[in-house]
Structures are given as C-alpha cells and as structure tokens.
Amino acid sequence: MSSSLTLRAGPDAVRLIRERGLRVEDIDVVAGASGGPRWLVLAGLDRMLFGDFFRARTRPLHLIGSSIGSWRLCCLAQNEPVAALGRFAEAYITQRYPPNPSAALVSTTSRGVVDAIVGTDGETQILGHPWARLHVLTNRCRGLSASEQRHLQTLGLTLSALGNLVSRRTLGLQIERVIFHSAGDTSPFRGLKDLPSVHLPLTRENLRPALLASGSIPLAMSGVRIDGAGPGVHRDGGILDYHPDLDFGVGEGLVLYPHFYPYLVPGYFDSALLWRRAGPANFRRALLLSPSPEFVARLPFGKIPDLDDFYRLSDAERMRAWRQVLSESERMGDELRELLATGRLAERLQPLR
C-alpha cells in the first residue's frame, strides 16, 4: 500500500529520533506556515497530533505560525484542540463570496472564521494554557505598502518584491516582523536578527486582531490596526515568513513542522524564485511532515486545495472537494499513529536538504 506521509529531518533530528523515537517531551517548537486552503490537507495530521500526541505534554511548547499556520496553532493552544479544529474547518470551508469581493467583505468573513476558532472563551484558555506558548506572526507595513488605496499598495508591494530579488534584508525598508506571543521572556525567538522584529505580549484585547492580521492577505483584505501595538497597519505574516525559516532558538529539542510541501519557501515574494528555498541552517533539528506525492494524486483534481479554488469552482463544487480533502487527510494522521505505535518512524526518515 502506498504511503500518505513523507518524513524529512535535519541531521540532529535524525540522530535524536533514531536514539529515542519521536517522543512528545523531546519537542521544543511546533511551526505552522502560510498557505490558505492548503491547511486542509494537514487537518487529519493536526487532529492526531493536537488530540492524541500532545495530550501527555507537560513542559512548555512554543508554537509559532504565520497566517493560516497561526490559526491552526491557535487551536492547539486551547483546552479542546480537536473541537477548535472542527470549528475552524467548518467555518473555513463554508466561506462564500460574490465575484470580485471587496477587501472589506473578505476581512469581515475572515473575522468570523477567527471568532469560530477562538470560540467564547479562547482568550482565557490560550493565555492561561499550562504548556502551550502561542506566537502569532504579523507584518507591520510602512510607506506605500500600508496604503489601503489599491494602486499605491500594489506599487509598494512591487517595490518590496523587486528589492527582495537582491536580498531579503531589503524587505525591512517597508515591512517589520511583529511577534505577538504568550511566552514572555522565555520565547526562543527573542534573538531574531535576520529582519527587523518586534515582540509584543498577546492579550485578551489583541489576540483576535493579531490572528486576523496574521491572515490578512495584501490587496485581498484590509490591513488591521491593533490597539496598544503602536502605529502602523498589520498585514499577513506570510509576507516575510511564508514558511517560517527562523532561528528556532537554542536547545536540543525537536522542531516539529507539519507542512504542505517537502520544502520551505522563506517569504511570499520568494514563491516564484526557485533558487530561494530555505537552507539547512535553521533546520538541523527539524522534522518536516508532509503529504506524499501518491497521497496528493488521490485528492480531488490531483492537487492540494489553494485560493484559486474560490475562482475556478462553484461554491458547491469547492465545498464538496474541500470536505473530501478533509476526509482524506485522516490517512496522514492514521499513518503517523501507526509509525509511532510500531516504532518504525525512524526507518522512514529522509534527509531534509
């Protein structure tokens, strides 16, 4: 029977897993990438990890995500993570838009998805969680990229993309990484120096706005101003950290990275730059879990869901396809569960390059 799951690991992760297996207490960080509807392919894996695997967790676990990745990890930081994932999936799949929706309408609809994820008491659960330390990545924009006038925002983003061709460091001229988190002084990301970065505490007042901002796609959605977070407009955390390629901090514990692909793209503007892929430096202790090519081939239309589905499919066709992906995603969770139970996970590791 073909495999549904691909496992790639950095050299330190390979060594640790071969010595001990994959143990919940050996994981320091869980990372989540941007990707819109692509998250649905990971839903079954998330349910297994969030519901079964991390149930016995006791020591602090740092969760860091951009855009849809922060929304997924927000579920893990709640008392009933599988229930939160269920609310997330239903609210996300049932989104409906007219042709060419306004940025305001998409933002309003997305705010409803965030409200469904957080629920009635999510702030209390997340901020008081015994071991989950949530980090939400947003991007604070300056200059033209902060404008809500479409032509000016487009010009600002184009200038950023052109600068990015030369170096990712040029992005700091217009865009600043903001990390809202519940880890206080224990955050492993406080030393980030690759791009301008600001750390702010997650609070009851800013948690939902930060989550909304983290997923606020430029041009498609309105920017978010967050009270108490200083001046500026916050947009999608994936602009700088599309698939977070970060210094994950000191320590020997693993970085667990459920992901849509077997590779990582550092920033959104790197998507079309085939030479700009995440290098090995930050991933020596990372375990990347992703769907196998055989698994993807079985999905509707032979692909992972993406934002184009909103345009090329009717609502009924899209919802039907996405629900099928949601169902098929259970195969990935089941396969990981079996590998852990049989102790055969180490045999399946491939190098993460």
Brief summary of the model shown:
The protein has 353 residues and is α/β, with parallel strands linked by helices.
Polypeptide structure, described:
With 353 residues, the chain is of the alpha/beta class. The protein has a domain at 5-135 and 240-351. The protein has twelve helices and ten strands. It has helices at residues 11-20, 43-51, 68-76, 81-93, 103-118, 122-127, 150-166, 207-214, 293-298, 309-312, 315-328, 330-342, and strands at 5-9, 27-32, 61-66, 132-141, 175-181, 197-201, 233-236, 254-258, 286-291, 349-351. Strands 1, 2, 3, 4, 5, 6, 7, 8, 9 and 10 form a ten-stranded mixed sheet that branches. Helix 2 (43-51) runs antiparallel to helix 4 (81-93). It starts with a strand and ends with a strand. This is PNPLA domain-containing protein.
| Rg calculated over all Cα atoms | 19 Å
**Structural class estimated from helices and strands:** alpha/beta
Residue share in β-strands: 15-25%
What shape does the CA trace take?
Answer: globular
Helix tally equals 12
Query: Mean of the pLDDT scores?
Result: 96
Number of strands: 10
Percent range of helical residues: 25-40%
- Reading the helices and strands in chain order gives EHEHEHHHHEHEEHEEEHHHHE
Largest sheet: 10 strands, mixed
What distance separates the N and C termini?
27 Å
> Regions with pLDDT < 50 over 5+ consecutive residues?
none
List strands and helices in order, with pairings:
Elements: E1 5-9, H1 11-20, E2 27-32, H2 43-51, E3 61-66, H3 68-76, H4 81-93, H5 103-118, H6 122-127, E4 132-141, H7 150-166, E5 175-181, E6 197-201, H8 207-214, E7 233-236, E8 254-258, E9 286-291, H9 293-298, H10 309-312, H11 315-328, H12 330-342, E10 349-351
Parallel strand pairs: 1-10, 2-3, 2-8, 3-4, 5-6, 8-9
Antiparallel strand pairs: 1-9, 4-5, 4-7
Helix pairs in contact: 2-4, 2-12, 3-4, 4-5, 5-8
